[in-house]
Amino acid sequence: MTPILSKTDAGALVNAARIRRGLTWAALAEHLDAPLVWTTAALLGQHPLTAVQAKAVCELLELEDAVEESLRLQPSRGTDPALMSDPTVYRFVEAVTVYGPALKELIHEEFGDGIMSAINFNIDIKRRPDPDGDRVVVTFDGKFLDYKW
Fold first, then answer.
1. What is the DSSP letter of 24?
2. Which one, of 31, 54, 30, lies nearest residue 43 by Cα?
3. What is the pLDDT, as a whole number, of residue 69?
4. Domains in the chain: ranges and CATH
5. Annotated catalytic residue 94
6. Is the per-residue pLDDT at 85 higher than 90?
7. In whole angstroms, what is the distance from residue 59 CA to residue 135 CA?
8. Of the residues 30, 59, 64, 94, which is catalytic?
9. Once rounded to an integer, what is the mean pLDDT over residues 52-62?
10. Which of 30, 105, 117, 135 does the annotation list as catalytic?
């Protein structure tokens, strides 16, 4: 019996097939009828796909059953520490490091004692034209969860 393909390896195969076929992440999200950022994260191994979704993407990308099997598994969520030093990823770390305490205070002031869920959560990315250079707009939309004692 062969071991189950890791989600990281399955994600690498999905990405390679996507690139070689000239497909965008947006095209894959549309094919799965799922949100763009969620789809990209799922195909890179951060969320499980349903059996229908895994089959659909593997058929589109002509990937083996082993990839489909891996895409359906529950992940161990998180990021490889080496990736945290990537400049794009690190800018998010930097932004949360600088603005996290202020956001915490503002959430508590507006909503009370609680947190923003990253489980009941939507995220989106958009381009906004600007005369000084296009802007990246990232929207975090999480349910407020109050602490109940």
1. -
2. 54
3. 97
4. 7-71 (1.10.260.40), 83-146 (3.30.1160.10)
5. yes
6. no
7. 35
8. 94
9. 98
10. 117
